[in-house]
Design goal:
By secondary structure, the chain is α/β, with parallel strands linked by helices. It contains 7 helices and 11 strands. The strands form 2 sheets. The chain has a 7-stranded mixed sheet with strand order 3-2-1-4-5-11-10, with helices on both faces. Strands 6-7-8-9 form a 4-stranded antiparallel sheet. It is globular, with a radius of gyration of 18 Å.
Length: 246
């Protein structure tokens, strides 16, 4: 079975076309401006670069980082087609290292759900070391209630003309294991099957806040999706600022 996003990368944005990337991106653009975050930013777990393209179009100097090489290939292609400048690098959130610190790091849409609970503090420490003092760190994860109550032990399907997506999800204590199957239409009309496995870890708000504070972040706000109430929300946004070292 393939790794996460080895095959899904080409189809990821299409299969998520109901998430309203434009409104979601504007939420980050408005928030970064309000926080005075600066112009040089990193999107960690950028995937095929939807948020990077939106931020670049809004005047930010963006770099996209992702562990998946196929996702980065797709990101380069889509940025070129959109006519925006985005640099892309391959990087693991748990072992992030950059040559020059950024003004801000945003990590939308589940990047840190792919980091285990044990690795969270060290992963957040790597993010802190990749930011300027006073820099903004903004992470957006699937909430614990979403993963436990909506995703776990459930099956999701999406049937399009050229692709069918199936996802079989199982709860395993601290995580949800996802077996993804794609049936992709080839030029001759045949459908080819591809399989890959995803694991998303369940992070409680208190655990995230504690880990962030332990490595030198001030947690400015904790919000639900698009700034809404966090109680019962499918998404949890933690907006932080890197403290000056004493």
């Amino acid at each position: 079975m393939a790794n996460a996003y080895d095959h899904l990368s080409k189809w990821f944005e299409l299969l998520n076309d109901d998430c309203d990337y434009a409104t979601w991106s504007q939420y980050f653009i408005d928030g970064l401006a309000r926080l005075g975050a600066g112009k040089r930013g990193l999107e960690l777990g950028c995937g095929s670069g939807a948020f990077c393209r939106a931020l670049a179009s809004a005047g930010y100097e963006m770099t996209g980082a992702d562990l998946s090489a196929p996702m980065l290939t797709e990101g380069v292609k889509r940025a070129r087609e959109a006519g925006v400048r985005v640099d892309f690098i391959q990087a693991d959130a748990a072992r992030l290292h950059v040559p020059k610190p950024f003004d801000f790091i945003v990590s939308p849409n589940d990047c840190y759900n792919y980091v285990s609970q044990e690795k969270l503090p060290s992963a957040f420490a790597r993010a802190a070391s990749s930011l300027k003092t006073g820099g903004i760190f903004w992470i957006d994860v699937s909430s614990a209630c979403k993963l436990r109550e909506k995703i776990a032990n459930n099956i999701f399907a999406d049937d399009r003309d050229d692709i069918t997506y199936l996802c079989f999800n199982s709860l395993k204590k601290d995580r949800v294991e996802m077996d993804v199957t794609l049936f992709v239409k080839e030029k001759d009309g045949r459908f080819c099957r591809f399989d890959e496995k995803h694991v998303q870890y369940i992070h409680e708000e208190e655990q995230l806040v504690s880990a962030l504070k332990s490595v030198g972040f001030d947690v400015i706000a904790v919000e639900g999706h698009l700034g809404g109430a966090k109680e019962g929300s499918d998404r949890l946004n933690l907006i932080c600022r890197k403290q000056a070292r004493s």
